[in-house]
Design brief:
heterodimer, A: about 375 residues, mainly alpha, flat, B: about 260 residues, alpha/beta, Rossmann fold, about 35% helix, globular, ABC_transporter-like_CS (chain B), ATP hydrolysis activity (chain B), transport (chain B), P-loop_NTPase (chain B)
Chain lengths: ~375, ~260
């Protein structure tokens, strides 16, 4: 049996659900027009400048777009457009410093950034070399190899110290911690997250002064200072990741007669490992650019030092600081400044690489859901 | 395999709150025992005390005796881990391990305890358990795929396969079908009927038809009011509970007059 349904008759009167609507392309057209108007107005009032151009364009766009929507589409749509304009503007303003930093570092750093820069140290490079290079009598020399090596060694050691401590602390907090002890650990971890980095540096310097004599500076002291900063970050991020592992998985393991510690090692941690690994990578990215604690613990040097347990060790941030603040040649500091920018570029590249690695790890270790 | 359980005057507390009071019952080996009752009456709390899973919840404790073939589960020096290896459990929501393949999920009980298995032995266990859970034909070609890629009903049967792979004496099921559609429910009910040849099965259910279909004996739990402890009202053969119960509250509940 088939039931024929008659299509509803087309209503003669306009539907009560329909409203006046601007054509879809209105916003784009208004945007283009306001940019043009902004350029014109900016040129009119005291000469063209990028700042007044941007401000005026946004203003014109916000006013015109909102008013137009208000007249044609009604109040709700107008408010919607106004708030949308605010949100996009805020987003644009937030992007300005980021892009500006990346641009200036790229622009200034590209000049000296080369294989040569990455593979040579500053040993025996003097102000005289820089002056001769500026006069064109000799090539620019001097690089950041010793600083890159130092940064990798110090950060690597800091990671080796922080990850076990941080991960085990977070496992304690999530799986075992009850009552006052767990609460106070959480509190102190929170406090430690906010420690100024110079305080961490002074703590490590004082510790090594007590243990090995005043003035002891080496890469390991720097690593200890960095781990003071890194441990709370690792604890926090791993704790979050372990907490979102569903309790049902723990119960499933217990119900199979699996002891608690095996459940943690074989079920809980593997389920959370992608989040933990990317959290650790981001914690490394957070401390790799720390300057103050390394200056007071690892010091400066212009030579390659691959032993973190003796003698001063250079790191990239300290290299940037020393090249920028104490140029080799007082009369012609430009080569030193160029080196500082190139080192800053190297640092940003390392951080960027670490972020990419974090994403890769998160994807590789994520629980699979394919069919 | 399969052992009987005798519970003697069991009280369950959460901290100082008495959740279940004075339960005594006998659960026969190789039979299906169903627990029914309104929400919050302590069925799930009680079933968890049968393999000490309630101890996972902070503050939960029991008084009384639970005997597994005459051995007290709560005796001195009894390790809850050993208890759970004999009394397996299937939960309300399917919970396969997301990091493991279907095969590894079935073998989880051995692998997580780092028991070494020869490959042929492991293959046997996987095939036997999946066949036991009526899942073999559906997954035999994709044993290396993640368990979380299966449908809800398949995942629940995978969890049952995982539970029977370690060959427990008793299988506890806490509302195993409440998250499943009627067809998957039917598959699992059929499975329960087959499993009782070899295992002692205890099932908590909110579905009275299900209790009537699958169980040999039924226990009715009830609660006097909020904040009061849950109690075992009546336990008898399933047909008797559903046709001619001896307590008025049971009759009201199974005939749908309340709850």
């Amino acid at each position: 049996m088939s039931v024929a349904t008659k299509p509803p008759a087309t209503p003669a009167a306009p539907s009560s659900l329909a409203h006046n609507q601007l054509p879809r392309y209105t916003t784009q057209v208004v945007l283009v027009l306001s940019i043009a108007a902004g350029a014109g107005l900016s040129a009119l009032f005291g000469g063209f400048s990028p700042v007044s151009f941007a401000v005026l364009s946004v203003l014109v766009f916000g006013v015109v777009n909102t008013t137009l929507a208000g007249i044609v589409e009604g109040r709700r749509k107008a408010v919607d457009k106004l708030v949308t304009t605010f949100v996009y503007t805020a987003f644009g303003i937030a992007l300005v410093p980021l892009i500006s930093v990346i641009w200036s570092v790229l622009d200034n750093g590209a000049e000296r950034f080369s294989i040569d820069f990455l593979t040579t140290s500053m040993r025996n490079v003097t102000g005289l070399n820089d002056q001769q290079a500026l006069e064109g009598a000799a090539p620019f020399i001097g690089g950041a190899y010793h600083a890159i090596l130092g940064t990798f060694l110090i950060t690597g050691l800091a990671t080796i110290i922080s990850v076990p401590i941080g991960l085990l602390t977070s496992i304690y907090l999530v799986e075992y911690g009850r009552g006052r002890l767990a609460r106070s650990i959480t509190f102190f971890v929170d406090v430690m997250t906010g420690i100024p980095s110079i305080v961490a540096g002074l703590f490590a310097a004082a510790l090594f002064a007590v243990l090995f004599g005043v003035g002891t500076r080496n890469g390991f002291a720097g690593a200890v200072a960095l781990s003071v900063l890194m441990i709370p970050v690792v604890v926090r991020s791993s704790e979050e990741m372990l907490r979102i592992v569903p309790n049902e998985l723990r119960e499933a393991a217990y119900a199979l007669g699996v002891p608690k510690w095996r459940t943690i090692v074989r079920v809980v941690v593997p389920t959370a490992i992608s989040g933990i690994a990317s959290g650790v990578t981001l914690a490394i990215a957070r401390v790799v650019g720390e300057t103050a604690p390394l200056i007071v613990t690892a010091g400066f040097t212009s030579s390659i030092n691959s032993d973190p347990f003796s003698d001063w060790m250079m790191s990239l941030p300290a290299y940037v600081y020393s090249q920028a603040m104490r140029p080799l040649s007082g009369s012609s500091p430009e080569p030193s400044f160029d080196r500082a920018w190139a080192a800053a570029l190297t640092l940003i590249l390392i951080v960027m690489l670490l972020n990419l690695v974090a994403r890769l790890i998160a994807r590789l270790f994520a629980p699979k859901t394919g069919r | 395999m399969s052992k009987r359980i005798d519970v003697g005057d069991l009280n369950v507390y959460y901290g100082s709150f008495l959740a279940v009071e004075g339960v005594s019952m006998a659960i026969e080996a190789r039979s299906v025992t169903a627990f029914i009752g309104p929400s919050g009456c302590g069925k799930s709390t009680f079933i968890r005390t049968l393999n000490r899973m309630h101890e996972v919840i902070p503050g939960a404790r029991v008084e009384g005796k639970v005997m597994l073939d005459g051995e007290d589960l709560y005796g001195a020096n009894v390790d809850p881990v050993t208890v759970r290896r004999q009394v397996g459990m299937v939960f309300q929501r399917p919970n396969p391990f997301p990091t493991m393949s279907i095969r590894d999920n079935v073998l989880a009980g051995m692998k997580l305890n780092s028991n070494r298995l020869r490959k042929s032995e492991a293959d046997d266990i996987v095939e036997r358990s999946l066949k036991g859970a009526n899942l073999w034909n559906e997954v035999k070609d994709r044993l290396d795929k993640p368990g979380s890629g299966l449908s809800g009903g398949q995942q629940q049967r995978l969890c049952i396969a995982r539970a029977i792979a370690v060959q427990p004496e008793v299988l506890l099921m806490d509302e195993p079908c409440s998250a499943l559609d009627p067809i998957s429910t039917l598959a699992i009910e059929d499975l329960i009927g087959e499993l009782k040849q070899n295992y002692t099965i205890v099932i908590v259910t909110h579905n009275m038809q299900q209790a009537a279909r699958v169980s040999d004996r039924t226990a009715f739990f009830n609660i006097a009011g909020t904040g009061k402890p849950g109690k075992l009202i009546e336990m008898d053969d399933t047909t008797k509970i559903f046709t001619n119960p001896s307590v008025k509250a049971t009759e009201d509940y199974v005939s749908g007059r309340f709850g």
